[in-house]
């Protein structure tokens, strides 16, 4: 020990060690911050025992020793992470052997690694090291080491130091064990609390006829449960075929009005004059054919729910009449003067962009704000692909039950259905399953039974026109003008197309399969030999004109890509290989269309391509 310490009498030395133990025990029980507590312990040892350096290493879950507290080290050494493996260096040897180690002269010790730095002066002075294992319940959990600069050389006695540091290490071990036990119990309580909260969390109950597991549809159902108990007006928005009426009926069935009538009106199916009479009713003799008084839908739905579908299609004049009913909950019948009070919860639905309609003056802003109280957005089927297989099996089971059959669908067909774009959403999927169910054999719907495998599905044609920014047959325009698959070349216009029908824009991309299921060129529909098709061309739809444009003379067909490089007419003579290449280039490498141009079947074209070793281009 240093000379100042050696001059103390044994009695006073024992008193100093006892006092130090007392101070260490107080420090260890003073705080829950383990690292701060260990630093205070090392500071106390330095003050009482003239220790120059002190370090505490604790073993982590990966059995690696990490420096968690130190005293007397430089700021650079404290900033870096110092890890020691079992058996590595002096500290690793203490961990591995669980025995104290005394190094009288660090300069002569080959195991000294000097990881923490600052020991470059060992040639000038004698530095000693004493290290003891930190144990808890008989297991080594760390290492405690101290350094001293000895004025007496290497002949000092370290027995008392080892005994004293062993007692300190035991106190540290018990504290570490206590902290880890408390931390583990805290983590356990947090896991239990989270589990209990999850179990007590209200589970979104299923809605009749709504089949879903995807997160966005589960959020929709949760919103339905939240809004159902109230009288607030609900606006359901989504593309055609997403199930807006099902959601409206679910809101009614879960509301306090479930025993009252649920009245539905399709605003797009009636002209303005009939729509006014249908909603408000009319008096006898108010117009030709009014033989008696007629109650309107608002009157019939009193106390219940009125569902106005396609509300975006009503005229501007009727929007003002509807606004008064929504604001005042009163109206007059057509041809009458008596004001009728009504208590109706209104649920509206549309597939149009009402904000754009308001901006263009086609929809009243005050009516928009009146019906847009609680908005529920239904995602399209292509954005909830996790539900496609579930819905397909549901529709298969429904068809089988309705027709007394035991039907199933195989996995390969489900994979193809999962790759389709589904512009008609759930309604289109149901029709596709029903169509395939009528064609299947042996009670299982397989890949050849699907319409896209027979080149009979033209839904992607509608989807591509929809991406141009206009509604097609009730399909809402896409918010993006980007085609579904920009890498696919557009199919050229058949030569027999009338000039009065304008061709699609040049930048429109057409899927390689009619349904778009092979848009990414997987071995889907192309793996199945299609059924030979009759030589009749399907004319694409005309390009939708921008809103507000006046009708004009039919525009000339858009230039066909590659028309400057390919002949216009089929070569009358020449090898079959050249004629086949000509036809495939003209039709965008669609075998069914090439077969119609050549007067062959699709099977013959497929055989010829393999015979002449022609590689099919994938766009």
Automatic annotation (TrEMBL):
Stretches with biased composition (Pro residues): 536-545
Pfam entry (one): GAF
Domain of life: Bacteria
One BP annotation, GO: phosphorelay signal transduction system
Residue ranges, annotated region (Disordered): 476-496, 536-575
Biased composition (Polar residues): 477-487
Keywords: Activator, ATP-binding, DNA-binding, Nitrogen fixation, Nucleotide-binding, Transcription, Transcription regulation, Two-component regulatory system
Residue ranges constituting the Sigma-54 factor interaction domain according to the UniProt record: 210-438
Single GO molecular function: sequence-specific DNA binding
SMART domains registered for this protein in UniProt: AAA, GAF
UniProt cross-references to SUPFAM superfamilies, sorted A to Z: GAF domain-like, P-loop containing nucleoside triphosphate hydrolases
Its job: Required for activation of most nif operons, which are directly involved in nitrogen fixation.
Oligomer and partners: Interacts with sigma-54.
Designated name of the protein: Nif-specific regulatory protein
Organism of this sequence: Azospirillum doebereinerae
Designated gene of the protein: nifA
